[in-house]
Amino acid sequence: MTSSQPAKIAVAIVAAGRGERAGQAGDGPKQYRPIGGRAVLAHTVRALCDHPAVGAIAIAIHSDDRDLFEAAMGDLADRVVAVEGGASRQASVLCALRALRPQDPQFVMIHDGVRPFVDAVIVDRLAEGMDGTAGALPALPVSDTLKRVGVDGIIAGTEPRDGLFSAQTPQAFPFAAILQAHERAAETDPHRFTDDAALAEWAGIPVRVVAGSPENVKLTWAKDIDMADRKLAGATPFYPDVRTGTGYDVHGFTAGDHVTLCGVAIPHDVRLSGHSDADVGLHALTDALLATCSAGDIGTHFPPSDERWKGVDSAVFVDHAAGLVRENGGRIANVDVTVIAEAPKIGPHRQAMTARMAEILGIDAARISVKATTNEKLGFVGRREGIAALATATVIFSGEVPS
After folding, report:
1. d(C-alpha 86, C-alpha 205), whole Å
2. How far out from the chain centre does Cα 384 lie?
3. What is the 3-state secondary structure (H, E, C) of 125-177?
4. Which own/partner pairs from 61-65 qualify as long-range (CB within 8 Å, at least 24 positions apart)?
5. How far is CA 383 from CA 253, 282, 307, 342, 377, in A?
6. How many other C-beta atoms can be found within 10 angstroms of the C-beta atom of residue 132?
7. Distance CA 150, CA 168 (A)
8. How far is it, in rounded angstroms, from Cα 314 to Cα 265?
9. Could you tell me which of 279, 285, 344, 356 has the C-alpha nearest to residue 312?
10. DSSP code of residue 102
11. Per-residue DSSP letter, 61
């Protein structure tokens, strides 16, 4: 568009669709779904009317959506005129063009109401790309490999993508030419065209391609609307609810012939003393799991004064703690147990320990770590008076950390 031409370009926006692919009917048409605190259509209108080259704006809406439209527009109401759309996109475009006719614009941009990320750069490119005889559309080169598929679902061939582009909107045209083309098409093919550039081709109007934008997406599916909402919310970071709990336990030795560590009985010249089987590894792990959901400690749930737990397999404690984690919506991501002992050697039993804990927790063994270290002959462990254990559990809960 040369500098001698009018500065203002009229805009026709199509917003009369039902948008069934974007979710349930009860959610309302997608052009009125909220993103970033306002309706999709409001963002679209704002993006265009903020451009100094944009003049009159006509929006084709569904007859059932008048209240939704008025609520969506808010402070933008005095910038737009609403007109009832038709039975197809093509028919709705014609309704909007006719509404603009009294303004006698020289050029018009036709835009989808559900492309809220159109920007000033695209409008500038369109203004520069069209003239008194030719239109312009923003488009992106096709990057995917294209397959032609037969009716039987079998690939029939691969199409070359050289020179192929994916069309976007707004699409800009000389107003009189595109209005006349739409009037002609309404008489012969009222529902044929889903793209104004295609209708222009049919009418013999040349259309020039200008660079589009990957950001100028059309919101089609519910996931598109969710993505747009996050984007317009200022790209607010998501903080997943990942919690880490730790546990520590120690038991002294008494007379016996084996110790139980991480669910595995290991021959030894003494055993660990405790009300249950005194498995320091599983006791520490129980406390670590309980900590991730603020559920107290092992003594809260299994007091040593209760005779029910005398000599019991400590797997019962871990199973209970893991159950509480799951009841609270948690998913165990990783557990790590470190056994601190001068003897017995843990290495030969590590695989059995890992397998046993995987069985108790119901998670993959790759998410379980068992390690051992001595106390360098220092303290009660160094004097071989007992064994200690440290445990860490990482649990992911549903939702995110509240602000």
Report:
1. 24
2. 54
3. HHHHHCCCCCEEEEEEECCCCEEEECCCCCEEEEECCCCCEEECCCEEEEHHH
4. 61/15, 61/16, 61/85, 62/15, 62/16, 62/17, 62/18, 62/29, 65/15, 65/16, 65/29, 65/32
5. 11, 23, 31, 8, 6
6. 12
7. 27
8. 12
9. 279
10. G
11. E
What are the structure tokens assigned to 87, written together? 């039975």
Cβ count near 396 (within 10 Å): 15
Could you give the CA distance from residue 44 to residue 59 in angstroms, rounded to a whole number?
11
Terminal-to-terminal C-alpha distance of the chain: 50
Q: Which of 296, 278, 275 is nearest to 287 (CA)?
A: 296
Spatial separation of the C-alpha atoms in residues 52 and 166, rounded to whole Å: 27
Q: CA 230, CA 247: separation in Å to the nearest integer?
A: 38
Are 56 and 48 within 8 A, CB to CB? no
Per-residue pLDDT of the chain (403 residues), as tens digits, is: 544 444 489 999 999 987 655 544 455 799 999 998 899 999 999 999 989 999 999 999 999 999 999 999 999 999 999 999 999 999 999 999 999 999 999 999 999 999 999 999 999 999 999 988 999 999 999 988 999 999 999 999 999 988 999 999 999 999 999 999 999 999 988 888 989 999 999 999 999 999 999 999 999 998 999 889 888 876 556 678 999 999 999 999 999 999 999 999 999 999 999 989 999 999 999 999 999 999 999 999 999 889 999 999 999 999 999 999 999 989 999 999 999 999 999 999 999 999 999 999 999 999 999 999 999 999 999 999 999 999 999 999 987 787 6
Yes or no: say if 353 and 300 are a contact pair by the CB < 8 Å rule.
no
d(CA 50, CA 70) in angstroms, rounded, equals: 19
SS3 100: helix
Question: What six digits make up the tokens of 129?
Answer: 């790309």
| Distances from the Cα of 190 to the Cα of 86, 90, 95, 175, 183, angstroms | 10, 7, 12, 19, 9
For residue 400, give the nearest of 315, 342, 296, 329 by alpha carbon.
Answer: 329
Contact between residue 49 and residue 81 where contact means Cβ atoms under 8 Å apart: no
Between helix 196-203 and helix 175-188 the angle, nearest 10°, is: 90
